[in-house]
Write a structure and sequence with these properties.
Elements lengths: L9 E4 L18 E11 L2 H4 L8 E9 H5 L7 E7 L3 E3 L2
Amino acid sequence: RSPAFAVGARVRVKDVEPTGHTRLPGYVRGKVGVVEALQPAHLLPDTHAYFLGENPQHVYTVRFDSHEVWGPDTDAFTLTIEMFESYLEPAA
C-alpha cells in the first residue's frame, strides 16, 4: 500500500507503552518530528518476534530537534531515527 506520510510531513510519535519487544524508542514517544526520507517497507520486528506475522510497513527517517526531545537546556542539534509507520501519527 502507499505510504501514509510524505517527505516534509510533520509527525508525532505515538505515546504508547507496548508490551514485549519494540523498536520504538521511549525518549521520542509523544515528540514531534519531520519526515526526512522514506525507506522501503520492512517486516515489523514487534510482531515478527512473537510469530504474529511479518506485518511489513513503510519505514521513515524522522528528524527531531534536540530541544523537542530533551528540552531547552540541551545543546542544539538534530537527531534522525528510522521509525515504522505504525509508530507515527500526523502532527497537528
